[in-house]
Amino acid sequence: xxxxxxxxxxxxxxxxxxxxxxxxxxxxxxxxxxxxxxxxxxxxxxxxxxxxxxxxxxxxxxxxxxxxxxxxxxxxxxxxxxxxxxxxxxxxxxxxxxxxxxxxxxxxxxxxxxxxxxxxxxxxxxxxxxxxxxxxxxxxxxxxxxxxxxxxxxxxxxxxxxxxxxxxxxxxxxxxxxxxxxxxxxxxxxxxxxxxxxxxxxxxxxxxxxxxxxxxxxxxxxxxxxxxxxxxxxxxxxx
Length: 239
Ligand code: PEP
Fold this sequence. Notes:
globular; binds phosphoenolpyruvate; alpha/beta
C-alpha cells in the first residue's frame, strides 16, 4: 500500500492562507504519484479543498441524521461537498468535547450511510502509558464492528502538538497490537509531532503506513519536505 500523508489543519488558517496552501500542495501532488495525500481543513474550506484535491477529509461529522440540529454538519452535507474521509475519535474531540464511544459509534454509522471512509483515532494519555495496550484495545471497540473500509490513526495524546514524538520502536509496538486487532489489510497512520526530521524513521517501521500531521502541515515548506521524504522513501531512495 502507498504511504498516506494526511494534513490535519485543525482550527487554523484563514481563507487566503488555506487557498494558497492547498494550491501549493496540489503542485507537489502533481509531481508525486507514489504517496496518497489528504487534507483535513475546517468545514468552511471543504469545498475549496475538494475543488483542488481528490482526497478531502472532514475533521468532524454530526452523529445525527439531517434535521433540526443548529450548528451541526451532517455526513450527507460532507458528501455533497466532495468529502471522502473523516476523522472520528481524535483526542481533541474525546477530551475537549467529551465524545464517548456511543457518540463515536453513531458518527461511524452516519459516515457509513454515505460511504465516507473514517480515519478512527486512538491514543493513550501520559498517565495511561503504562497500560497502553488495554487502553488502545478498549478505544478500538467501536471500529471493530464497522463493516466498511476504514483507516486507523495511532496518536499518543502526550505526543500531539508537544514536539515530543513517540520513538519509531515504541510506535511500532502499538501499531503491531492495533494491526493484530484490525487485521492485515487495514492502513495504520502514526500521528503526534510528526516533522520532516522524524518521519523517515517512523515510515521504516513495518506497521506504520503513513502519518497524520498537525502543526507541520500548516506551512508549505515543512509539509512539502514531509511529502518529498515519503515519496523518496517509497521509491527506495532513502533506505
Ligand atoms: C493531530 O492533532 O492530529 C496531530 C498529529 O498534531 P501534531 O502533528 O501537531 O502533533
